[in-house]
Design a protein that fits this description.
Helix content: 25-40%
Largest sheet: 15 strands, mixed
CATH architecture of the largest domain: 3-Layer(aba) Sandwich
Structural class: alpha/beta
CATH superfamily of the largest domain: Putative sugar-binding, N-terminal domain
């Protein structure tokens, strides 16, 4: 048995697929169905559909499924745990071919749970969160409503049923699969809830596919003997990938706090590119100056934190365009980069696309949802380290942890007391 993961952005594809790489499965993330995936037993594709219309997103998702699905392969539709993007339309497009959609967006270890069919973030309704207000404003985050609006017949699985007799649970889900129901929303508050769901649904005889965040994926990855095929184990000796380039396209408060810790603890160079430069590209009068600044830093072997600024004209919908501009600024100097940390799926995809990296072999997880990998195909004879992370995701420590990983460094115990360690003590040579 092998697995196909379809995600709507690159960081999402990686933070879902990394669970399988960590479990020892040969796992690849690809930007396009035409790129090399080798003999991977788990393939995750980024369809890059988050900014498309619902109809366009559904069509592209279905095309990816038809292009990559192999005989005997299971399907996992990765969705954002805070329901961003066109996930309902994409599920609807897949459902006619793949069977009952098991909807479980919960990711309890990151504070995302599902209760009474509603997504909660650290116990609060999703609609009240910063992320939802920034991108969705007046839209409802009701799971049932979103799926029904996409044309699906919906049922719900409550916690009491999920936590009841396992044989009865299996019969119940089987009956739902045999009914006219097309999507089953599952409440989940703990990882044990997701574990139960993964065990029972993996044994269903009826056609079905999973729809969830990285939470459910982690439980499926741990099922004994569920996935067969080539295995890959990360080498024991860790290489140093320096200089390190940290690209931050996300403007979330979480990303800001992560950047603050990274700067405090490493002394990394920090450049914030004004949005007008990225909007106009090479036509902007300051484009060459910014390109030269970036080159000067990287050519000296210095680590660099490169961020997208914000102005009054900023619109969340222009994120992909700004990320593309940021990648273009770096492209001419990328040959000097040993390792990349990219925050935000659009930012990661833009950078990899700009330099011709079409797929990544995932190797390990830096922390929950923060994936490390390397290009399958060498880039000018080298394979830079790549870490991806969703923007509004992770602990305040996430970017710093990724920097430590790429620099093959150990965090000083002094940080437990809140003091600042000289980067030289962490093995930083820049």
């Amino acid at each position: 048995m092998t697995l196909l993961i379809i995600a709507d952005d690159l960081s999402g594809a990686a933070d879902c697929a990394i669970a399988f790489a960590s479990a020892g499965h040969n796992t690849v993330v690809t930007l396009d169905a035409t790129h090399d995936t080798g003999d991977a037993s788990v393939v995750a594709i980024d369809t890059d559909t988050r900014r498309l219309s619902g109809a366009q997103a559904g069509q592209r998702t279905l095309e990816a499924y038809q292009s990559l699905l192999a005989p005997g392969q299971k399907l996992y539709k990765k969705i954002d745990s805070t329901l961003r993007g066109n996930w309902a339309a994409e599920v609807a497009a897949l459902q006619a071919r793949a069977g009952l959609a098991i909807i479980a967006p919960a990711f309890p270890t990151t504070g995302r749970t599902t209760v009474d069919g509603q997504v909660l973030v650290n116990g609060l309704a999703l609609e009240t969160t910063e992320t939802w207000k920034l991108e969705h404003a007046d839209r409802s985050a009701d799971l049932t409503l979103m799926l029904e609006s996409a044309g699906l017949r919906v049922a719900r699985l409550t916690l009491s049923v999920l936590r009841g007799d396992v044989a009865a649970l299996a019969r119940h889900i089987g009956e739902v699969a045999n009914s006219e129901t097309q999507a089953l929303i599952v409440d989940a508050v703990t990882t044990e809830d997701l574990k139960i769901l993964s065990v029972v649904t993996s044994q269903l005889e009826q056609a079905m596919f999973w729809v969830g965040s990285g939470g459910l994926a982690r439980e499926i990855a741990l099922l004994p003997g569920f996935i067969s095929g080539a295995s890959l184990h990360a080498p024991g000796e860790h290489e140093k990938y320096a200089p390190t380039l940290v690209l931050v396209g996300s403007l979330s408060g979480i990303s800001e706090r992560q950047c603050a810790m990274l700067k405090e603890r490493t002394g990394i160079n920090d450049l914030v590119v004004p949005p007008p430069v990225l909007r106009q590209g090479k036509k902007h009068v300051d484009w060459e100056r910014w390109e030269a600044q970036i080159g000067e830093c990287l050519n000296q072997g210095d680590d660099l934190l490169l961020r997208i600024g914000r102005d009054e004209a900023f619109d969340p919908a222009e994120g992909a365009h700004l990320s593309t501009g940021l990648a273009a600024l770096v492209r001419s100097n990328f040959a000097q980069v040993g390792g990349v940390i990219a925050t935000g799926g659009e930012t990661a995809r833009a950078m990899l696309s700009a330099v011709g990296i079409g797929s990544l072999q995932l190797i390990c997880e830096v922390e929950a949802g923060v994936a490390f990998g390397r290009p399958i195909t060498p880039l000018a004879g080298r394979r830079p380290g790549v870490v991806t992370k969703a923007g509004a995701f992770g602990t305040e420590h996430a970017l710093y942890a990724a920097w430590l990983h790429l620099n093959n460094a150990i965090e000083s115990a002094q940080y437990g007391a809140g003091t600042v360690t000289n980067p030289a003590l962490l093995g930083k040579t820049s």
